[in-house]
Amino acid sequence: MAPDTLEFEESIAVILKEIEALALLPATEARDRQMESHRGRLESTRAQLYASLTPWQRVQVARHPSRPGFEDFIARLFTGFLEIHGDRRFADDHAVMSGFAEYHGERVLVVGHVKGTDTKAKIHRNFGYARPEGYRKALRTMRLAEKFRRPIVVFVDTPAAYPGIESEERGVAEAIAVNLRDMMLLDTPVIVIVSGEGGSGGALGIAVGDRVLMQEFAIYSVIPPEGCAAILWRDPAKKVEAAAALKLTAPDLLKAGLIDEIVPEPVGGAHTDPVAAARMVDEVLARALTEVSALDSDTRLGRRYEKFRNMGRVGIDFVEEGR
Fold first, then answer.
1. What are the DSSP calls for 215-255, one per residue?
2. 176 neighbors 205 (Cβ within 8 angstroms)
3. Is residue 3 part of a domain?
4. CA 178 to CA 172: how far, in whole Å?
5. For 259-305, how does the pLDDT look when each residue is reduced to its tens digit (9 = 90+)?
6. 322 located within any domain
7. Strand extents, DSSP E, the chain
8. Strands 190-199 and 79-83
9. What is the domain extent for residue 20?
């Protein structure tokens, strides 16, 4: 199997190997025609496969090692990024980046989780698991954006908040809770994009906004499938069943009213064409930011409050009638 293909992409891996073998042959018209035919097969095979992914397969795509991360979006969508470090209370958490940048001529604050690409970077970024100081840094910079009336763009991509002892000792639950409260009240436009994994409170700690967008093959759930399987079935191997039960896909979340819009991805996922994926994000982000920025403060804050207050309600009519 090709190194960049997933376990369910065996048919795609076969075609990629055939294209690779043809590329090693001398260039001829016959070879070029054959390569073009193989590329057409690759495109149609990907389209057919990705049109009916299971929830667990979507989890695998969201975790793909080549999936564009926060640093990729900064490079492709923003200019003049100036990173801000530290929470001014303990340390600088490298799993969360935050800073001001230009977006279509407007100064904005961008915040996001960073997982890292190679082994060294992943260790430096703690694999995207943010500690309390990461959430406090994010909120500190968001308050700066509010002070200077700059919109905020958030990219969510984390398995969860870091569960280590030192994280608990420094109050990770309190840090996330404060972010939930204070982001609800930030008097500036906030657009959230779930771009990879949206895992548990680690994701929600920076994901309160006026619009919550989600890339087509991203995931967003209260717990990773493996953790859910270990708790419910005491068997991590039940992760496939857990992924289906969690309703963590973008279509599921849109139907439940937990996100506002799905951002399309290139055929085969964002990792197959990061440039096109960034262009698709840009199109939806620019529109959402324009629409939210046009609202006055009271309307914007009121809608944000109602949006999150209405999440997860079951049997509202029953409750309101007092039965």
1. ETT-EEESS-HHHHHHHHTS-GGGHHHHHHHHT-BHHHHHH
2. yes
3. no
4. 10
5. 999 999 998 999 999 999 999 999 999 999 999 999 999 999 999 99
6. no
7. 79-83, 96-103, 106-113, 152-158, 190-199, 211-215, 219-221, 261-263
8. unpaired
9. 10-52
